[in-house]
Design brief:
The complex is a heterodimer of chains A (507) and B (322). Chain A is of the alpha/beta class. Chain A is 34% helix and 24% strand. Chain A has 17 helices and 20 strands. Chain A has helices at residues 43-51, 73-78, 96-100, 115-128, 144-158, 175-192, 203-209, 232-240, 297-304, 327-333, 342-346, 353-358, 374-388, 404-417, 434-451, 461-467, 490-497, and strands spanning 3-14, 17-28, 32-36, 58-63, 66-68, 81-84, 163-167, 195-199, 212-217, 220-226, 263-270, 274-281, 286-290, 312-317, 320-321, 335-338, 422-425, 453-457, 470-475, 478-484. In chain A, a hairpin with a 2-residue loop joins β1 (3-14) and β2 (17-28). Chain A is globular. Chain B is mostly helical and 322 residues long. In chain B, α2 (14-25) runs parallel beside α13, α3 (35-60) crosses α13 and α12 packs parallel to α14 (290-320). Chain B is globular. Chain B has 14 helices and no strands. The chains are: A alpha/beta (507), B mainly alpha (322). Chain A binds chain B through residues 305, 307, 327-328, 331, 337, 339, 344-351, 355, 358-363, 366, 370-372, 393, 397-398, 400-401, 414, 418, and chain B through 183-186, 188-189, 191-192, 195-196, 198-206, 262-263, 316, 319-320, 322.
Chain lengths: 507, 322
Amino acid sequence: MGIIYSLNNITKQYSGTTALNNVDFELADGEIHSLVGKNGAGKSTLVGIMYGSIAPTSGTINLFGKDISHLTPMKAVSMGLFLVPQHPEFALDLTVSENMFLGHFLLKKDGALDRKLMDEHTNEIITRMKLKVNSRELMRRVDVESQQLLLAGKAFWIENAKIILLDEITATLSLKAKNTFYEILSEVVKKEKKSIVYITHRMQEVIQLSDRVTVLRNGIKIGTRDVKALSPIELTSMITGNEDISNKINVENDISKDNEPVISLRDFSSRNTFHNISLDVYKGEVVGIAGLEGSGASELMRAVFGIGKFYEGSMKFNGKEVVVHSPRKAMNLGIAYLTRDRESEGIIQGCTIEHNIMGSQYSKVTNKFGIINTGKANDLVGYMHNLLNIKMTTSKLPIDSLSGGNKQKVLFARMINNKPKLFMLDHATQGIDVEAIQEILRITREILSKESAIIMSSESIEDMMSICDRIIVMFVGEIVAEFARDDFQEERIFLKMQGFKEEKNEN
Amino acid sequence: MKIKRASLFLLDNFIWVLLIILIVSASGIPNFFSIRNFSNILYNSTAAGMMTLGMVFCLLVGHLDLSVEATYAFAPSMAVLFMVQWASIPPIAAVILTIIFGVIIGAFNGFISVKLSINPFMLTLCMQIILRGLVLYFIPQGIFGLPDGFTFLGGSKVFGTDIQLAVILFIAIFLIAHFVMKNFAFGKNLIATGSNKNAAYLTGVNTDKVRIIAFILSGTLSAIGGLFMAGRIGSVTNTMGEGAVMTVLASAVLGGVSMNGGKGTVLGAMGGVIFMSAISNVLTMWGFSPFLVSVVQGTLLLAAILFDNAREKLYLAIMRKA
């Protein structure tokens, strides 16, 4: 098997942080090559570079034996490479067959669209993918699962790409659709000699589908292996690493379990996202929720904060039964929430740092006429500035002048401002540099948890292990395991997150 | 540091800089530099200025209110009908009634668009058509010779000077609005909602309430603008304010208020309003045809929009230099 696509010594730096460090990648003719790694390992950056949508800082690219200096998506597609992204993008108001042939319309002699022929081809694809879709239907009326498969079909048979990048394609698929897709994929690779780069989170897929696997961690390539000679445990340790997570964060806390828990959930359910969650968290306690995309962890926190109204079950706050139907209600009770989507839901773009720290709390620093006391506001901002060590020249600058880690601290300041009894931190360490991660963890443990209860999630199990008293694992909306601090083992937690039932622990 | 401050100040108040340039370049015109002429320029801004201020609240919160020009005609017209035809209420009551109509229309726009999630652009367009239709139906000929008790807001002068009461009110209302936006929690919440509604909601801002209030302010201020106009011409007509919404938007954008919400200041918008009136004053004095005046106004607006993009980049560039 010859190498048809190789990337050598690829490095990508974003203002200050290194997303990829000297990574090599080779794709052989007719193989399925999995690309795995935890969130933030650099998978999406590497895929972007392969597809030409991200320019590497340094490194060389060789596609079909040709050295390519400036790869663009357009060039990539014209050379026979196609990306099927995690969330397919279609022109929703065109029909299915129009979408399938968008960019490659089949025309009749007079120049009009040859609908009949396009429908025929589309129906062929629909049959091969075992879908129940009408080719004349508007794409808007087609469910996401079918859209995802249609796009894969387009890549296979209409674009006729030689190399296809599949980015977490099964994330939105049901079990049945997944199995159909696996069959088609192996068939396509075997019979039509296509090469696949398969980006995934799921180890089962790696083992079941692929010939080789490349593992990334923290922007570094850990290795490329033949899958046949690889056990799940080995793969897991390649992905998670066995680093010693010694750190100097003080985790001593008085957890007063004699008192009422700060928050107590019983049979807490939301129709599609999580089921029968029962959970008590006490003052001084830090509880981590581990789970993949779709585990329901984020949705659970959002429901407790009153976003999205439809949940069942009971929620007690400081011993009192409460119903929370808006963030304002939650905040008045003493609940704080850090969104995982910092840029679009967290910071208020275009406003100053001060405004972002104050949030909706300006009304608390006004005099009796409702006029804002600037002195008081300044004091508060200054206090937060010192407490959280926010790096800024002045709080009157726009929030966008700060780095990710400092923006995150601003959001922490905003929460602390309201003196909550419960903090819910969704992916608190996402998208910030290593130093800032340590600071955020320290703040969480040493400042926030002194007076409050904390529920947190993180894409990094290590982060949670370093400061949590307990880690709860959620899988498809249910709590499937709980680990006390003494039992923390990254591999075991990782396997539980993947939904492995029995532990395949050889020891 | 001083240079940086000064350049930031100039960027933020660019419209006022333009206004000064305009005034200086017009200084050759005889009689231009007179209290009477300046007062006239301001007087011409008052009615549209109120509509603009209302629109600014809506723009800042991230919406559009196309019904301002119809409210401007509808509110005073109906109040006048109550005064002279339907109920003979006293003039001062008619003044208050006008304002109440404005509040009601704004509240209706706000509640329907926010609570029923209807696109405010479409809703207020419907309101514009409906209200204009009602005005045309009820006062096909216009109503003339209104009593002083109704027209004093727009028509009277202060203490026998040459300065109209409306000018004083115009300046006062803008300054109050500026103060509220800068120094009240409401102003901060309004800007936050316009900048990022989702984030504002998650920090506990009652974004629905803020948006409804913006519409109420818009309706109310438009009604006050209508009062100024009715007072000035001593009548209500069914063509009052027709097509004004475009000038209103132009003034706001010229003053640095963004169509995307969250960005802009009340004082900037005030500069925009005065500039629109000043440029037409200057060009008329120079002997331009009124048709060419709108060509110039339109061109300036286009330039302002182009400048707006550049301004954001300049702003960040200057900030970074710190």
